[in-house]
Amino acid sequence: MHQSEYPSILLENAVEEFAKLPGIGRKTAMRLALHVLKQRNEDVNLFGNTFIKLKNEVKFCKICNNISDKEVCNICSDSSRNHSTLCVVENIKDVMAIENTGQYKGYYHVLGGIISPMDGIGPSDLNIQNLEHRITENKIIDEIIFALPTTMEGDTTNYYIHKKLKDYRLKFSVLARGVAIGDDLEYTDELTLGRSIINRIEFS
Amino acid sequence: MHQSEYPSILLENAVEEFAKLPGIGRKTAMRLALHVLKQRNEDVNLFGNTFIKLKNEVKFCKICNNISDKEVCNICSDSSRNHSTLCVVENIKDVMAIENTGQYKGYYHVLGGIISPMDGIGPSDLNIQNLEHRITENKIIDEIIFALPTTMEGDTTNYYIHKKLKDYRLKFSVLARGVAIGDDLEYTDELTLGRSIINRIEFS
What we know:
Two copies of one chain form a homodimer.
Chain A: H1 2-5, H2 9-19, H3 26-38, H4 41-57, E1 59-60, E2 67-68, E3 85-89, H5 92-101, E4 107-110, H6 129-137, E5 143-146, H7 152-165, E6 171-174, H8 190-198
Helix pairs in contact in A: 2-3
C-alpha cells in the first residue's frame, strides 16, 4: 500500500521532512508540501536556502551565547546597559521574551538548555563553564537572576549553578512567580496561587 | 522595537519563511526555526534542498495531471485498471484518498483546482480542456465520476464539465453523500442527514 500512498518519491521526501518538525503530523506535512509545490520556483529556492543559510552562517555570541549575526551580540555590545546584573536563561526565546518587556537593562547568559538527566543533558553540555569565567573576569557583576523554568530540571540547574558560584560575592535571585496580571484566581493553578500567597508583597 | 525582537536577521528570515506556510503563526515559526538551528548541518541541508528538489524536479502526468516522478504516472501506466471510468478530482490529495480505499480501479483526471470566480479561477486555469481531449481520443470511457467538493464551487465545476461533455455518450455520476459510517445521527449536520434521507437506498 505504501507505494500507492505517494504518487511521487519527491513529494514523499518533502512530506517526510516537514513531518520531522516538532508538532507537524503527516496530514499537515502533506498540506505544507503541496503548498510549497504551488509556489513559484524562486520562492521555493528562497524558502529552502533560508534554513541552510541560517544553519551555516548564524553565530552565537562569544560572551553570552545568544544567537547573533556577529561575534558579539547586540546586547553584549551595548555598553549602556547595567553591567552589574546577569540574567541566566535557558534559550534565546527567553532573551527575546524578557527584552520585549523593556523592564530589564542588564546582560544575559544563555545556557542553551537545562540540566536534564532524563534527556542525557548534564552540566558539561551547557554553557555553564563560561558563566563562571565571566564572573571571575568581570568584577562588576553582583547579581545573578535565575530565569529558568519552574520545573525539576530548572530547579536542578539553579541549584547546580548556585553551588558553583556561591563563593563569589554575588546576590542570587529568581523571577517572581504568581497569578498573571488580569488572570482570574479561579483559573490559576493551585501551585501558582499558593506560591503567590506565600510570596505576597506589601500593599502600597 | 522590531530591531530588538530578533537577535539575528538570519533567524528572522527563517521565521518569516516558516510563517508564510498556511496555518503556521509567528510563535510556531519561531519554534520551528530554533528546531532547525539545533539540527546537524547535513540534516538542515537535506531539509532545505528537499523542497527545492521537489519544486524543480517533480512532474505532472501528461495524461491525468497527477503528480509523478515520470512523464506518465503509476496509475495511468497501469493497464490492468478499468479503462471505462474516469474519476474527476480537484487535486492529488483526492487521488490518494480514493486510492487508499482500494474500492476504485478506474483512472483519474486531476483538475488542479475548481472553478472559483471569487479566487479568480476560471475553467481555463484548470485541466478541463485535456479532459475533453481524453474522451474524444479514448472511446472506451463511458462513465465520468465527479468527486469534487460539495461546495458552490464544486457544483459549478461539475455543472460546467457536464455541459461541455453532455453530447458524448457518457454516464455521469457523483459520490454518494450521507452519514459517515459509525457517526451518530445527532452529530451529523442537517444538510448531510437530509441528503442521506433523500438518497436512501433499498435495505437488503
